[in-house]
Design goal:
The strands form 2 sheets. A two-stranded antiparallel ribbon has the order 1-2. A two-stranded antiparallel sheet has the order 3-4. It starts with a helix and ends with a helix. The protein has 34 helices and 4 strands. Helix 22 runs antiparallel to helix 23. By secondary structure, the protein is mostly helical. It folds into 2 domains: about 280 residues, Farnesyl Diphosphate Synthase (Orthogonal Bundle); about 260 residues, Farnesyl Diphosphate Synthase (Orthogonal Bundle), CATH 1.10.600.10. The longest helix has 29 residues. The N terminus is likely disordered. Helices cover about 70% and strands about 0% of the residues. Strand 1 and strand 2 form a beta hairpin.
Length: about 650
């Protein structure tokens, strides 16, 4: 299924975004020549720079799609709800572009534009981000109807849940709201740019629906279709940001070029056709037969298609970088910071995407997990596989970390190899390390099932929780069953140290839940107590699993501890309310009451907004992220590209944790 989706995505032109690293990967550069000053400096996290604005934007979008017709309002806000808003990639780019263009304007300012980044101008540019997001979501709703899709962003697509008619109507409603907001800007050039982007979305979808066999094999046709469906919206929106700021036509075109090259997606299968003309016939059939998928992937593996795709992606990334570097000079740190962040965003495609690096293994792991939880009792099987079904498996963060750690530790082991461990990344060792990823995921899901019973939760991963759907007894039984299957797999590894590590992780999960259930008022206000509880409930499992990966590979105790430290710092979570208490002692009484009264939540949020709690939380999270990075950088040196690539990906994951919204 995954392999078919890869090819399907290639012909649909949907890009995969990648996380961004807190520390520039060693040996990485963007430009064709030596890295410029803007590239060689450590880039800020793009999403963190505009996190507050993204939060405000999300709230405004939810309020803007409200209507007097409840069912239409529910449909229109379907993908603006907390937890399913997506990555908000386009608004991030546009808000960063706004700051990146905050430079003096030499020409006279025309009507409908502003000079300098005043509050009024920033508000107008924020409107462009909101308009763009509404247009984007509207196009997704309509695309899902045309494609008869049943999932989107990990949950049921709107057309699948509420029907095609309401999905089309909701898309039209979002376009209408976008147009109303666009008109309020009173700038005809901006209106023209956004109207062009909408027209291109329609044209791109029409091109996809009416593609001939010859066009399906044409790179030129494919890139034009991809521009219309993907790059046009962000490029024209970037240009609109510049136009509102009163920038020159030259600067506006640089903003456009950045967006255009950022949104380019290529299909490796088209390069493969050049090497294997016999593949044309397979492509012409449109991959309706699963056997054709296997044939195409076979040719793709033999060809240079993927490598040439990467090279072309790098070329477009370089062009995007050059566009940013050609902007008018500025000494303002906020401007320089956002420009570095925009350059960082060009790295989203490529071999160091953590999830793409292990995509095939994750697919195999998902299939094995589904087979591992099969039992002779159908109802128990249905319960145990509830969160392993396609579409609700979650982000699979833990397995991704562990598979990357396995590759990152693929270095020679100097000490003698003990029983139950292997040297070098042999097939046998990789299989055993994959088993750790499977065991970890089963333990994780089992803990979620039990937690939901204890918390009386009714939702999990965008659907009804298992206890809510099938009852507490079956949820507890399913969790116990997963624990037992994890233990059986663990025993098969025949390594007592690994068994001890995973048993410790399970004990810590129980201890953390007990700490949460029995917290006293004094403990609730203690940062030390909170961090210990968080370690038990979150970080212990991934840190001990990372160490188990190292132990199976026969690594030294020092290297094993580095793997452990990476996982421990990756899993740390902090509570801004505890920092706020230090500034506002009167908040202690509110916290002591346990937030059972909704009014206490409002009071606490008021104090939190006035305090430095959120900012201090971010700083502490960055500190732990940096420690995780240092652990990876302290691993034994290796010249192997796959090892270096995996290590860069692990570093990039520290940013994914910093910027995730749920």
């Amino acid at each position: 299924m995954l392999r078919r989706s890869i090819l399907s995505a290639a012909f649909r032109g949907r890009a995969t975004r990648r996380p961004f690293s807190i520390v520039a990967p060693r040996g990485a550069s963007v430009g064709k020549e030596r890295p410029s000053d803007s590239q060689s400096k450590k880039g800020p996290d793009p999403f963190s720079l505009v996190a507050d604005e993204l939060s405000l934007l999300a709230n405004r979008l939810r309020s803007m799609v409200a209507t007097e017709v409840p069912k239409l309002a529910s449909a229109a806000e379907y993908f603006f709800k907390m937890g399913v808003e997506g990555k908000r990639f386009r608004p991030t780019v546009l808000l960063l572009m706004s700051s990146a263009l905050n430079v003096p304007i030499r020409e006279s300012i025309a009507d409908g534009v502003s000079g300098g980044l005043s509050n009024e101008l920033r508000s107008r540019q924020q409107s462009i981000a909101e308009i763009t997001e509404m247009i984007h979501v509207a196009s997704l709703l309509h695309d899902d109807v045309l494609d008869d899709a049943d999932t989107r962003r990990g949950i049921g697509s709107l057309n699948f849940v509420m029907g095609n008619k309401l999905a089309v109507l909701a898309g039209n409603f979002l376009l209408a709201r976008a147009c109303i907001l666009l008109a309020s800007l009173k700038n005809t050039e901006v209106v023209s740019l956004m109207a062009t982007a909408i027209e291109h979305l329609v044209t791109g979808e029409k091109m996809q629906m009416t593609t001939t066999s010859e066009q399906r094999r044409s790179m030129e046709y494919y890139l034009q279709k991809t521009y219309n469906k993907t790059a046009s919206l962000v490029s024209n929106s970037c240009k609109a940001i510049a136009v509102l700021a009163g920038q020159t036509s030259e600067v506006s075109m640089l903003a456009y070029e950045y967006g255009r090259n950022l949104g380019v997606v290529t299909a490796p299968i088209l390069f493969a056709i050049e090497e294997f003309p016999q593949l044309r016939e397979v492509v012409d059939r449109g991959f309706k037969n699963p056997a054709d998928v296997d044939i195409a992937l076979g040719y793709l593996g033999k060809s240079c298609g993927i490598e040439r795709t990467r090279e072309l992606a790098k070329e477009h990334a370089n062009r995007a970088v050059l566009a940013i570097e050609a902007l008018p000079a500025s000494d303002a740190e906020d401007v320089l910071s956002t420009r570095r962040a925009l350059i960082d965003l060009t790295h989203r495609e490529g071999p160091d995407d953590p999830f793409l690096l292990v995509a095939d293994e994750l697919s195999l792991l998902a299939n094995r997990l589904r087979s591992l939880v099969v039992t002779e009792v159908p109802k128990l099987t249905s319960a145990a596989e509830y969160f392993f079904k396609m579409g609700v498996e979650g982000k699979r963060m833990c397995p991704t970390v562990l598979l990357l750690m396995a590759s990152a530790l693929n270095v020679p082991v100097r000490e003698s190899i003990a029983d139950g461990v292997s040297s070098g990344l042999s097939n046998e060792l990789r299989s055993r390390q994959q088993a750790i990823a499977e065991i970890t995921e089963m333990i994780h899901v089992a803990s979620l099932l039990h937690d939901d019973v204890l918390d009386d939760a009714d939702t999990r991963r965008g659907i009804g929780s298992l206890n809510f759907v099938m009852g507490n007894k079956l949820a507890v039984l399913a969790g116990d069953f997963l624990f037992s299957r994890a233990c059986i797999s663990l025993a098969s590894l025949k390594n007592t140290e690994v068994v001890s590590l995973m048993a410790t992780a399970i004990e810590n999960l129980v201890t953390g839940e007990k700490m949460q259930m029995t917290t006293t008022s004094e403990q609730r206000r203690s940062m030390e107590y909170y961090l210990q509880k968080t370690y038990y409930k979150t970080a212990s499992l991934v840190s001990n699993s990372c160490k188990a990966i190292a132990v199976l590979a026969g690594q030294t105790s020092e290297v094993s501890m580095l793997a452990y430290e990476y996982g421990r710092n990756l899993g740390v979570v902090t509570a801004p309310i505890l920092f706020a208490i230090e500034e506002f002692p009167q908040l202690r009484e509110v916290v002591d009451r346990g937030f059972k009264n909704p009014a206490d939540v409002d009071i606490a949020l008021g104090y939190l907004g006035e305090s430095c709690g959120i900012e201090r939380t971010r700083e502490l999270a960055k500190e732990h992220a940096n420690r995780a990075v240092l652990a990876i950088e302290a691993l034994p040196e290796s010249d192997a590209e796959d090892v270096q690539s995996s290590r860069r990906a692990l570093i990039n994951l520290t940013h994914r944790v910093l910027t995730r919204t749920k």
